[in-house]
Amino acid sequence: MQDKLVLNKCKGLNMKKQLLAMALGLTFAVAANAADAQYRLVIHGGAGNITADRFTPEQQAEYHAGLQKALLAGNKVLASGGTAIDAVKAAINEMELNPIFNAGRGAVFTNEGKNELDSSIMDGKTLMAGAVAGVTNIKHPINCADIVRTKSPHVMMATKGAEKFCAQNGAETVDPKWFFTQNRYDQLKKAQEKEQVILDHDGATKKKTANAELYIDPLMYDYKYGTVGAVALDKDGNLAAGTSTGGMTNKRYGRIGDSPVIGAGTYANNKSVAVSATGSGEKFIRTSAAFNVHSRYTHLGENVQKAGDAVIKEIGDIKGTGGMIILDAKGNFAFPMNSGGMHRGMIDSKGVPMTAMFGDEQLRHFKAK
């Protein structure tokens, strides 16, 4: 599968190079130099089969508005001299409250009809990181992950233990019913109906094992990876990254993807990059995707665009799909992906939120009607 990477107007990329790229059928990750910016925040709201023909103008407006709200929340922190970590949390908190994203209030349902939430966060200055997996009553999983980072000697906590620890240390808890949204529940039912048709079809599953349903490609559900994430560079030159998700529709047996795995779905290091990923989690774990970007940037001298391109290609080579947001300590950023699109956005010290959805769409400032 050919990688589809977003082309943005970049300093140093002249028209001749653009025409050559078009002739070769290539596109590029967004890569911008932030020498004139005091800080920068880059976010994503998930990748997947996100193409213009699948979203009404009203739905597109809703996503742009949701991304803008998250960008402005993070920008408020950075503009006042706040840390990259706090900006990441502020942006993700907004998306965790927005049911159009697969995180927090908009989390998808497991096969048992539950919402199980995963999240992680990392400070590029200290390399301190925190993560939680399978929590069911934490209103803001990203905040819970940060509590693990700051209040414990551990990196990851899971399920009831994570819930208890975070609640004892100030995390806001809610009744699990708070996460219910009718749209996500309907998606679960449709997924289960479609899966049963495949399992019952002659020759569709020769194994007929107790776990036959695990071998069904989740992409058959018209799956959209609605995981949310943010990476930030603050005025002090520090990087941070965070990711939050409701996981995979119809997932079973406590499945956990890449979002809470440091080095797979999230990574930040002031010496290199901050990364947040979204996509087919198992493939991002197998390629250590986020850390892989750091390694290529650090040891091979590749820029954010080239490093991201290479890692997404590795994921594609093992039939994985999705995308990443990447930001380096100089303010350069990229949106590599091999999916139809990715909800994404950027804001810097100019204070103008720029957003995009589709693979061939450039960042723009969306003005609500």
Q: Can you walk me through this structure?
A:
With 369 residues, the chain is of the alpha+beta class. The chain is 32% helix and 20% strand. It has helices at 15-23, 57-79, 84-97, 141-151, 159-168, 182-200, 281-286, 289-299, 304-317, and strands spanning 40-48, 117-123, 129-135, 156-158, 224-225, 228-233, 239-245, 266-268, 273-279, 322-328, 333-334, 341-348, 354-358. The strands form 2 sheets. Strands 1, 2, 3, 4, 5, 6, 7, 12 and 13 form a 9-stranded mixed sheet that branches. The longest helix is centred in the first third of the chain and has 23 residues, at 57-79. The protein is globular, with a radius of gyration of 19 Å. It starts with 14 loop residues before the first helix and ends in an 11-residue tail after the last strand.
